[in-house]
Amino acid sequence: MLTKRIIPCLDVKDGRVVKGIQFVQLRDAGDPVELARFYDEQGADELVFLDISASHEGRKTMVEVVKAVASELAIPFTVGGGINTLEDMKRILRAGADKVSLNTAAVNRPELITEGSNYFGAQCIVVAVDAKYDPDLESWTVYTHGGRTRTERDVMDWVKEAVDRGAGEILLTSMDSDGEKKGFDLALTKAVSEKVSVPVIASGGAGNADHFANAFTKGQADAALAASIFHYKETSVAEVKAFIKEKGVFVR
Amino acid sequence: MIGIIDYGMGNLFSVSKALERLEVPYLISDEPVALMEADGLILPGVGAIKDAMELLHRTGLSNTIIDFAATGKPLLGICLGMQLLFEESEENGGTRGLGLLPGYVKKFPGVTAEGISYKVPHMGWNQLKFINESPILKKVDEDFVYFVHSYYAVTEAADVLIASSQYDVDVPAVVGKENIFGTQFHPEKSSKAGMRILLNFTKMAEERMGVS
């Protein structure tokens, strides 16, 4: 039986991890390699690096970061942010990443999912979906550009299309829960998990270990991703795993 | 020196970086002569078995692998590389493999015998269960390792199964016979257990070099 996965997410800008990470035991808290190693030691099952560089130079630096991380890390990792073409995917995957995550670019041109999936295999292609509940429509709507742009797409339709086009995994972020630390959006996570046949990573809202347990049991997620709760040491990957194991969730 | 076979289908980078972390010298090559001189060979692989076999035949590397296996030096197939070691695969309507291990490769049905559907590929961390003793598992516990695959091996030869993992069926996770080994999971992505397995393989290559 597969374990449920706990995935820390690191935002990288111009080659440096941002968001004020506070680890006293680290010599350089902005070094992606050192942080990656730290989370690996903690029992993280995978890592996600989100490139938030705005400049072309920053994007080029990300390839160097991927190479450095791949040299050190013996667990899988995904890179997202700024991947717009098949060439971008090739650059990142050949630098040693295991998966790429597509968001806005996939919404703008869904064929990109198929191209990547045909070239590298579905297991390499993660489609990231930023979802926000629309009370009038009584369903979730897809947002792009880091949550700034509302689209006309319905989340349930989009995840289905993404998987039909060759997505191997869905990284599902609830914009309603993100940053609130009140738990993952269980209704959204469950609805998407039941809709698609590929693994679903729940994201947005993790505030404590119990929230992770709920994402797996009530939300039926295959993996759960969090950033600040780990970075600010409110809890650790090891603590979360020990807790959810007690709750009967199968972890490594 | 460990040879990594470059036939255009593998994630050579991850495997080579893992060997660098172990401080094991390696070469990545598609040259039969250079590969034959290695103390151990790694056959990586990601993708479709039919494409892989076509490439191995076209480059003549299929013969190199078979000749290398006959020397008694250790050979390790990883993921698709492991599947290639078997006699045949039902992928793409049937493809002959290298035939170094008895058995064949088939796809996960995606539905249990009770009619419950499950996710394919088998992707993520799953636990090893040991079946037969092998030097490849020296100082390895029944730990979790990282899998990504849609096909799995089936073999009648009980001695070939070294370890398995449960995913609807008992999935052969580590296989081997004499000097020929395969892991269905990615040791280079399987944290400490995976690194230990790679180390065990390279030690076998070194030790054999010592006696020859």
TrEMBL record, chain A:
Gene3D superfamilies: Aldolase class I (3.20.20.70). The keyword Membrane does not apply. Pathway: Amino-acid biosynthesis; L-histidine biosynthesis; L-histidine from 5-phospho-alpha-D-ribose 1-diphosphate: step 5/9. It is found in: Cytoplasm. The active site is at 11, 130. GO terms for molecular function: lyase activity. Keywords: Amino-acid biosynthesis, Cytoplasm, Histidine biosynthesis, Lyase. Its EC number is 4.3.2.10. It catalyses: 5-[(5-phospho-1-deoxy-D-ribulos-1-ylimino)methylamino]-1-(5-phospho-beta-D-ribosyl)imidazole-4-carboxamide + L-glutamine = D-erythro-1-(imidazol-4-yl)glycerol 3-phosphate + 5-amino-1-(5-phospho-beta-D-ribosyl)imidazole-4-carboxamide + L-glutamate + H(+). InterPro entries: Aldolase_TIM, His_biosynth, HisF, IGPS_HisA/HisF, RibuloseP-bd_barrel. It comes from the Bacteria. It is an enzyme of class 4 (lyase). IGPS catalyzes the conversion of PRFAR and glutamine to IGP, AICAR and glutamate. The HisF subunit catalyzes the cyclization activity that produces IGP and AICAR from PRFAR using the ammonia provided by the HisH subunit. Belongs to the HisA/HisF family. PANTHER family: IMIDAZOLE GLYCEROL PHOSPHATE SYNTHASE HISHF (PTHR21235:SF2), IMIDAZOLE GLYCEROL PHOSPHATE SYNTHASE SUBUNIT HISF/H IGP SYNTHASE SUBUNIT HISF/H (PTHR21235). Heterodimer of HisH and HisF. This is Imidazole glycerol phosphate synthase subunit HisF. It comes from Cytobacillus purgationiresistens. The gene is hisF.
UniProtKB/TrEMBL annotation, chain B:
Gene3D superfamilies: 3.40.50.880. Pathway: Amino-acid biosynthesis; L-histidine biosynthesis; L-histidine from 5-phospho-alpha-D-ribose 1-diphosphate: step 5/9. It catalyses: L-glutamine + H2O = L-glutamate + NH4(+); 5-[(5-phospho-1-deoxy-D-ribulos-1-ylimino)methylamino]-1-(5-phospho-beta-D-ribosyl)imidazole-4-carboxamide + L-glutamine = D-erythro-1-(imidazol-4-yl)glycerol 3-phosphate + 5-amino-1-(5-phospho-beta-D-ribosyl)imidazole-4-carboxamide + L-glutamate + H(+). Pfam families: GATase. Its main location: cytoplasm. Keywords: Amino-acid biosynthesis, Cytoplasm, Glutamine amidotransferase, Glycosyltransferase, Histidine biosynthesis, Hydrolase, Lyase, Transferase. InterPro entries: Class_I_gatase-like (IPR029062), GATASE (IPR017926), Imidazole-glycPsynth_HisH (IPR010139). SUPFAM superfamilies: Class I glutamine amidotransferase-like (SSF52317). It comes from the Bacteria. Its EC number is 4.3.2.10, 3.5.1.2. The active site is at residues 79, 186, 188. The keyword Kinase does not apply. It is found in: Cytoplasm. CDD domains: GATase1_IGP_Synthase. GO terms for molecular function: glycosyltransferase activity. Residues 5-201 form the Glutamine amidotransferase domain. IGPS catalyzes the conversion of PRFAR and glutamine to IGP, AICAR and glutamate. The HisH subunit catalyzes the hydrolysis of glutamine to glutamate and ammonia as part of the synthesis of IGP and AICAR. The resulting ammonia molecule is channeled to the active site of HisF. Heterodimer of HisH and HisF. HAMAP family: HisH. This is Imidazole glycerol phosphate synthase subunit HisH. The lineage of its organism: Bacteria, Bacillati, Bacillota, Bacilli, Bacillales.
